[in-house]
Amino acid sequence: MTINKSTIAFQQSTRVTFLSSSSKLTMSQSGANNKISAGAARSHTRKSKPDSSFGILRILLLAFFAAFCAWAYQTAIPPPPKTCGSPNGPPVTSPRIKLRDGRHISYTESGVPKDEAKSKIVYVHCFDCCKYHNPFAFASPDIVKELGVYVISIDRPGYGESDPDPKRTVKSFALDVEELADQMNLGQKFYVAGFSMGGQTVWSFLKYIPHRLEGAVLIAPAVNYWWPNLPLNLTNEAFSRQSKQDQWAMRVAHYLPRLTYWWNTQKWFPSFSIIDGTPAYGPPDIEILTKLVGAMDQNQAHALKSQPRLQGEFESVYRDLNIGFGKWNFDPMYLENPFPNKEGSVHIWMGDEDLIVPVTLQRYIAQELGWIKYHEVTGGGHLFAFANGVSDAILKELLSKQN
Known about the structure:
Number of strands: 8
CATH topology: Rossmann fold
InterPro entries: AB_hydrolase_1, AB_hydrolase_fold
Helix content: 40-55%
Structural class: alpha/beta
Largest sheet: 8 strands, mixed
Protein name: Alpha/Beta hydrolase fold protein
Distance between the termini: 109 Å
Domain AB hydrolase-1: 122-385
Shape: globular
Transmembrane segments: 55-73
Keywords: Hydrolase, Membrane, Transmembrane, Transmembrane helix
C-alpha cells in the first residue's frame, strides 16, 4: 500500500487542529467552573460535622468486647477447692498419711492384717470415683486369706479426702505412691493395681518406680489417644467410636487444657459424658451396676456418690482429664520389662465389650510389649472387674508364683 506525503501532511494538520480546539474547550470549561457563587464558597469552607452515631456504635462494641472478655476469663477460672479439714471444707472421716510437702493421702484397708500379709497391693481408683470403688473389696474372703492379700485403696489427689495437688503430673503421683508405701511400711517392694483412669496411672509406676514393684495389673486402663507410637489408623478408628461430646472434651483437654473447666461447665455444648452422668455403659455394665447398688445400704451408696467430688470438681475430674489426655513426657510403648528375670509380672485385663476403653488398642499394646500378660474377658464390659469371681481370678494371676 502506498502513502504519499500529502496524505501524511493532511493527517498531521488535522491532529494539531483537533488538539488546539480541545485545549481551548477545556480552558473555557475550566474558566466557567472557577466562577463559584459566594454561598457555595461559604458552604465549601465549613467543616463537616462527624457522624456521632458511628462513634457511639464503636464505643458500644468496645464495651461489649471488654465485657465478653471479662466474662470468658471469669468462667474459665475454676473456684478454689474446699480442702478436707480446712475451716470451710468437709470433715476428715478416714485415715490419712501426710506427705513431705504437707499434703495428705486418704486410704482404706482391706484383706488380711498388714503384718500377716504375704502380698501387699496399692489399689488406684478410676475416673470420678474414690477409694471405695475397689473391686478387690468384693473378692472371696477365702481367696484373700489363702493368698494372704492386704489391699490399701487410696484416694488420688483431689479426690475423696486426699488433698488436691495443683502441681500434679504423670510423674508426681507415682512418687506420692512410693512415699505412701514407705510411710505405711509396705516393704521394699509391693504390688500396684489400677482400674480405668487409675489403671492408666500404673504406666507411670512402671516408668518411675519400677525398682519398688513386685508386680502390676492394669484393669481396663484408659488410653491416651495422642501417645505417639500407637498406630494412627487404630487410634483414629478407636477415637471415632467415642461419643462426639467425649471426642471434643478430650481434644480440649489435650490442646487447650486451660479451657477444660470452662468447656465442661458451659451450657452451649455437652460436657464429658462421665462428668454429666451419661457414660457409655453397655448391657453387661448396667447389669453389674444394678446388682452392686441393690446390695448397698444407704450410707455406702451416699459415700460412693458424694466422695469423688467432695472437695470440688476441678482438682478431681477436670485435672484428671488434663493429665490423662494431655501431653505425656514419656510413651508407654517405649517401656522396658521391669522384671527381666521374671521376678514379677505385669498384666492387662480387658472386657471385649468395653464401650469406654477401646479393646483394639489394648490388644495392640499387649502385642507390642511382649512381656505383658494379656487377659480378655468374653462378654465383659467396662465394669467387668466387679462381676462375681473376676477379682478372685485377677488376684490369682497376679500373685501366682508362676507369674
